[in-house]
Amino acid sequence: MDRGCNYCPQCEEEYRACVRQCVSCMVDLISGAERMKQVQRDKQYKSGRSMDCIEADKLVIVIEAKLHDVKAVRSLLASENIPSLIFAEGRSRG
């Protein structure tokens, strides 16, 4: 990340400092310094997030696949501090 560049806040594409709007998203760009602050805030948020699932959490099915593939997705989610559950189809979820 370069402080001297501008970045799209939606797609995160990098632009030269003279460019003011993302050509894909058509939104105003932010400075490299502001993007670095956003990245730091995201890291702090993720590091403080609990990995425990609680009853109030909204659950979504992300993948239905072989256990090996499901574990790979779970690992990816964990690397972003996103909690997940794995269960076998037809078995009790509680």
Record keyword descriptors for this entry:
32% helix; 94 residues; three-stranded antiparallel β-sheet; mainly alpha
Quick structural overview:
32% of the residues lie in helices and 6% in strands. It has helices at residues 32-48, 67-79, and strands spanning 6-7, 14-15, 30-31.
Number of strands: 3
Which radius of gyration do the C-alpha atoms yield?
A: 19 Å
Main sheet record:
3 strands, antiparallel
Task: Report how far apart the termini are.
Answer: 44 Å
Query: If strands are numbered along the chain, what order do they take across the biggest sheet?
Result: 2-1-3
Range of helix content = 25-40%
Report the principal-axis shape: elongated
Q: Uncertain segments of ≥5 residues (pLDDT<50)?
A: none
What number is the mean pLDDT? 88
What is the count of distinct domains?
2
| Structural class computed from helices and strand pairing | mainly alpha
Q: Helical element count? A: 2
Q: Give the SSE string.
A: EEEHH
Give the amount of beta strand, in percent. Answer: 5-15%
